[in-house]
Amino acid sequence: MPNSTIIAISTPPGNGAIGIVRISGPGAEPLLTSVWQGPPPSSWTPKHLYSGHIVTPEGQCLDEVLCFIARAPHSYTGEDLVEIQAHGGHYLLELIVTQLLAMSTKSARLAKPGEFTQRAFLHGRIDLTQAEAVADLIAATNQAGVRQAGRQLAGKLSELVGKMRRDLLVLRAQMEAMIDFPEDEDVQGLHTAEISDRVNTLEGKITDLLATYQEGRAWREGVRVAIVGKPNVGKSSLLNALLREDRSIVHESPGTTRDLVEEVCTINGLAIRLIDTAGIRQGAEQVEQEGIKRSRQRIAQADLILALFDSSRPLDQEDLQIMELVGARDHVKLYTKIDRPPAFAETTLPQTVPILAISAQDGLGLEGLRKAMVQHFVRPNTASAEVCLSHLRHKLALEQALQTLQHIKDGMAQQISLEFLASDLLIAARHLGEITGEITTDELLGEIFSKFCLGK
Ligand SMILES: Nc1nc2c(ncn2[C@@H]2O[C@H](COP(=O)(O)OP(=O)(O)OP(=O)(O)O)[C@@H](O)[C@H]2O)c(=O)[nH]1
Ligand SMILES: [Mg+2]
After folding, report:
1. Residue with CA at minimum distance from ligand 1 atom 16
2. Mutation pick for ligand 1 pocket among 250, 311, 369 (CB with most ligand atoms within 8 Å)
3. Which of 107, 137, 166, 322 has its CA 20 to 30 A from that of 58?
4. What are the DSSP E strand ranges found in 277-386?
5. How many angstroms is it from 361 CA to the middle of ligand 1?
6. Between these two residues, 414 and 183, which has the higher pLDDT value?
């Protein structure tokens, strides 16, 4: 357990109406007392505000402030915690922090990013999914993101994963009993069919949870949608129409867009990063070729591709290459420029994925396209009532647990001994424990908390 005292400015850099300095650890109260002029902190009721002055040893007043103490273990960090609400000038707040550090014995230091929340985790106030939800809540850019982080912070994901983990451990304990007491008829009741039933049920629950990942991630991080097609099909025009601004250069000559043009638009609360790419074709000159190379890289990273085909020109070899490029990926086909007379029928396009007819110029079909993009990422009737998975870390751990369950089923089919099955159950339970932080490493904690803001 940490025994140092940490100090940080918890409000963002810049000047504001108020600014907060936080101190956490065993030295929090003495440290406050050393710079405080007002009712003595030792007499305070926890979590009640007191007004006073922050002063230097020479008696110079730095600021008039409000302050409270939350005493261990009843605080955000689980340690003694002091919050000083000062006036929000950043220079002033830095002076207060400098003063505190100057007065401290050697155990007080500046906090690292996320260290207050890390302490809350280390003291068992919250688990790892809840700590991650704190960062998500701060970073959320839409209502659904806030709601999702709120649910995770309330422990809904931990509850779900914790229940699965307990089921695995109970099953394992029953198997161990069968192994340890082969003569005891009371514990021999667990039949292969029942074990396999219970493994199947867990497998189903994990699969259901994994199925929420795309949506959860979409709400938390937003999504990337690449606009792709041969030159001149109307990609940049579509970007501009969806953004309702003149963002990307549109011109009648093919090969206009070379650099990638990216902009975020929000549709039904979902942050969609639209990426206008260079038209893909053979025999382009050098600069355009570089643009095409970059386009291909961004297309590879996109969550969804809008593949554009110009309805006013006959389909050609370049269009076929686009179909090939996007064929294996999540994509929507767009039949563009429908304000013009068609050169081929919409039905000529392979009907493997939705085809939408649009005119960027006249705004036709754009509402349908907006809806289709959102529907691709969000299941109907949700910004969901249930918990969504939104972190890759959680997804990977669940996938590993799932693989281990599959391994157990394979083992059962081959009638391998109970010892092996029981040890695999423990491995699966460990993977679930990684999600909530029952099983963790310093490296993982460092990785998670370093992404937090300073002072949180
Ligand atoms: N009639 C009509 N013309 C359009 C429409 N969309 C785009 N155009 C025209 O098609 C030409 C090419 O449009 P862009 O949006 O620059 O096409 P692009 O796919 O970005 O082209 P590159 O960047 O060269 O690959 C321009 O002259 C546009 O005005 C449309 O919906 N209707
Ligand atoms: Mg363009």
Report:
1. 250
2. 250
3. 107
4. 304-310, 331-336, 355-357
5. 8
6. 414
Pick the residue whose CA is nearest to atom 13 on ligand 1: 234
> 310: CA distance to ligand 1 center in Å?
9
> Is the beta carbon of 340 within 6 A of some atom in ligand 1?
yes
In eight-state DSSP terms, residue 72 is: T
231 CB within 6 A, ligand 1: yes
C-beta separation of 158 from 127 below 8 A? yes
**Strand ranges for 301-368 from DSSP E:** 304-310, 331-336, 355-357
How much distance in Å is there from the Cα of 307 to the middle of ligand 2? Answer: 13
Residue closest by Cα to atom 6 of ligand 1? 234
Question: Would you say the pTM of this structure is higher than 0.90?
Answer: no
Helix (H) or strand (E) holding 11: none
Cis preceding linkage at 2, omega within 30: no
User: Measured in Å, how far apart are the chain's first and last C-alpha atoms?
Assistant: 18
In ligand 1, which atom is closest to the CA atom of 257?
23
How many angstroms is it from 87 CA to the middle of ligand 2?
A: 50
Q: Which structural domains are found in the chain, ordered by start?
A: 5-125 (3.30.1360.120), 131-212+389-437 (1.20.120.430), 220-377 (3.40.50.300)
Closest CA relative to residue 79, chosen from 30, 155, 23, 21: 23
* Confidence check: pLDDT of 188 > 70: no
How many Å lie between the centroid of ligand 2 and the Cα of residue 27? 61
C-alpha–C-alpha distance, residues 232 and 250, integer Å: 9
Mean pLDDT of the chain: 92
DSSP 52: E
pLDDT digits (tens, 9 = 90+) for 305-330: 999 999 999 999 999 999 999 989 99
- Region of poorest pLDDT, from 271-275, 314-318, 413-417: 413-417
Cα torsion 326, 331, 333, 337: sign:
negative
Matching residue, tokens 């730095």? 62
* Residue of the CA atom closest to atom 30 of ligand 1: 337
Q: Does residue 2's CB lie within 6 angstroms of at least one atom of ligand 1?
A: no
Q: In angstroms, what is the span from residue 246 Cα to ligand 2's centroid?
A: 12
pLDDT tens string 283-304: 888 898 998 999 999 999 999 9
In short, whether 363's Cβ falls inside 6 Å of ligand 1 is no
Return the ligand number nearest the Cα of 229.
1
Does residue 383 carry a pLDDT above 50?
Answer: no
Per-residue confidence at 269, pLDDT binned at 50, 70, 90?
Answer: confident
pLDDT of residue 404: 97
